[in-house]
Write a structure and sequence with these properties.
About 75% of the residues lie in helices and about 0% in strands. Helix 3 runs parallel beside helix 5.
């Protein structure tokens, strides 16, 4: 039986544990929910996100695919699959997957930020900056997008602006590893 308070508490706990870098405990929290709610694509997405962060790429891919079986329109699952493709140096595949996500949700900050990162990796700093700015228009306090913007500005040799963006990122998330 669906208990919204228990569901919200366990899901929130899993997210917090993940943010604290306690991946094993976060995985346990999401897996407990998954056993109770096996047809909830949100849980599969959350689990995939933790698995990706923890470096369990094969399992992450399986979980993303299950999420998409449950909901073929789950945009963020395509983004994570794109991130997996980037990690595997399959940039064309990554571009296809993230582009699909952006066709589904053109203003999705997660997809915009990851496409910006992919464009940066491919050396197209102008497009990367345009994409990350779009992500930040949608979600101004998106720390990962701010950090990504700092990196892009750095590679454009805009060091003062880059430094200011990294400072802003660290004000939002003082222990943001990539911005340190």
């Amino acid at each position: 039986r669906y208990d919204p308070h228990r569901y919200d508490a366990l899901r929130g706990q899993g997210k917090c544990l993940s943010m604290l870098g306690r991946d094993y405990e976060a995985l346990a929290s999401f897996n407990a929910l998954r056993r109770t709610y096996p047809d909830d694509p949100d849980l599969y997405y959350e689990l995939a996100d933790v698995l990706f962060s923890a470096g369990y790429l094969e399992e992450c891919e399986k979980i993303c695919r299950r999420c998409l079986q449950l909901d073929p329109e789950y945009t963020n699952a395509y983004v994570i699959l794109g991130m997996l493709a980037m990690r595997r140096n399959a940039d064309d595949k990554a571009s296809q997957l993230i582009s699909k996500a952006l066709r589904m949700e053109p203003d999705n900050p997660f997809a915009l930020n990851e496409m910006a990162y992919l464009q940066h990796l491919q050396g197209d700093e102008d497009t990367a900056l345009e994409m990350v700015n779009r992500a930040l228009e949608e979600a101004p306090d998106y720390a990962d997008a701010l950090c990504n913007k700092g990196v892009i500005l750095y590679f454009r040799s805009e060091f003062d602006q880059s430094n200011a963006i990294f400072d802003e990122t660290l004000r939002l998330v003082p222990d943001h590893v990539a911005a340190l």
